[in-house]
Recover the amino acids of this structure.
């Protein structure tokens, strides 16, 4: 099952998530770059998947068969990034798009300070700590249900570490409480 997941992920992960992450962190990337990167990455990913399914079983390139899944993820990611760059370079960033970005970021709320800022921060810390603890508990449950001893050990230790991390984050939140009340 894991092998099938890696096989399918090699075709779809890069074109699906790399443009999304790039759009979140880059102001220079335009929508045309995202579209070109997505479809180019998808085409290459499906081509590599087809090559894996129909070409390699015929006995070609045994040395590449060993590491093809990992190589196809890297190739697909590189082609997706190259497609995003190519689409952005070919179509350029229109001045109106840059004006829209400037308008959106100009309306961003300033960072809150004082007691109000600490209250917002404490709520964020609480949510992150509870989510971390929940992931740790789920990983612990997966560890209990794991079939192999190695997977069980890794899952239980990692889950326990996440729960301990969440505990210390909540503890630091309780230490912040007197500072919030005094301001």
């Amino acid at each position: 099952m894991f092998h099938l997941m890696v096989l399918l992920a090699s075709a779809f992960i890069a074109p699906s998530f790399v443009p999304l992450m790039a759009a979140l962190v880059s102001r220079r990337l335009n929508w045309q770059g995202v579209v070109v990167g997505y479809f180019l990455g998808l085409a290459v990913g499906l081509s590599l998947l087809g090559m894996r399914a129909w070409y390699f079983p015929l006995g070609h390139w045994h040395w590449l068969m060993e590491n093809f899944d990992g190589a196809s993820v890297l190739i697909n990611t590189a082609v997706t990034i190259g497609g995003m760059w190519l689409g952005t370079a070919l179509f350029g960033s229109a001045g109106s798009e840059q004006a829209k970005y400037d308008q959106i970021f100009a309306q961003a709320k300033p960072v809150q300070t004082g007691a109000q800022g600490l209250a917002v921060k404490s709520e964020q810390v609480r949510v992150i700590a509870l989510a971390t603890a929940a992931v740790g508990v789920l990983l612990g449950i997966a560890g209990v249900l794991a079939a192999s001893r190695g997977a069980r050990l890794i899952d239980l230790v990692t889950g326990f570490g996440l729960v301990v991390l969440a505990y210390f984050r909540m503890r630091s939140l309780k230490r912040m409480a007197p500072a919030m009340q005094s301001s």
